[in-house]
Amino acid sequence: MNVIEEFLNLVLPGICVLCQRKGSPLCSACKSVFSGPVIEVQRSNTDGFLLKGFAVSHYSKSAATLVHELKENSQTSLASAMAKHMATSLAAGLKENNSFRSVCLVPIPSKKTSFQKRGFNPSLLLAKKISNYLRKQKSIKIQVENCLRLNREVLDQASQVGLARRQNLAGAISLVRPPSSKEIWLVDDVVTTGSTLLEAARCLSESGLRVSGFVVFAETLPKHLQKARAAAI
Ligand SMILES: [Zn+2]
Which region is the signal sequence (predicted)? Predict the structure, then answer.
């Protein structure tokens, strides 16, 4: 996102990206769609490594639109509303575990080409907004540690499944510097197979750090697993 786009984002009257009502990029009626109960999510790899987390929403059409507008149309003003719901989910989850102390948020890094195209990392932006919201609204201090890096360009994850996806990511993420906090929560916009989050957690745990879980805006499964989930219900 360049300076002009950022400026226009701030000064132009917003139009709700979901219902096109004038006033703000996400009107209060559409915001309330995402006020449902916290969705508990878990993802694991074939080694039995399990990571638990929280999602605000299933990957509905509305959720997909928000994510798309944030990432592909530089609608960064949406990040505050999305992060508010993510912060609420995280705070509710952490309260159950009674552990606000020593927590930090670690965003999933962007691909270099995506960062160059967008000019920002959506996960880092969401993590910063979550931290701001928790500090201002709930007096909870949680640092953001932008400490991970993608070592090389990985192929588009959406086009891959299972083993290919994991192999694509193996060793792709590394630690730039260790975070100062002990309890790490990963932040991303969407979780599908969880391969990226699991690889980030593997990278951090290899350095002796503990990843407690993750928080995302939306969760979904690849189509072949969605059918399996539906059949199991
Ligand atoms: Zn609306």
Answer: none
Output the CA 55–ligand 1 centroid distance in Å.
21
What is the C-alpha separation between 51 and 11, in angstroms, rounded? 41
The H or E element spanning position 149 is strand 148-150
**Interval between CA 157 and ligand 1 midpoint (Å):** 30
183 CB-side CA count, 13 A? 11
- CA 32 – ligand 1 centroid, Å: 9
Distance 21 CA to ligand 1 centre (A): 6
What is the Å distance from ligand 1's center to 15 Cα?
Answer: 8
What is the mean pLDDT of the segment spanning 186-192? 96
Give the dihedral sign, CA 13/17/22/25.
negative
Per DSSP, the residues of 166-206 read HHHHTT-EEESS--SSSEEEEEEEEESS-HHHHHHHHHHHH
pLDDT at residue 122 in the model: 96
Q: How far apart, in whole angstroms, are the C-alpha atoms of residue 210 and residue 207?
A: 9
Span 3-41, pLDDT tens digits: 655 565 555 558 999 999 998 899 999 999 999 888 999
Q: Determine the distance separating the centroid of ligand 1 and the alpha carbon of 25, expressed in angstroms.
A: 8
pTM as predicted: 0.85
Q: How many whole angstroms from 116 Cα to the centroid of ligand 1?
A: 30
Give the DSSP per-residue string, 91-121: HHHHHHHT--TTEEEEEPPPPHHHHHHHSS-
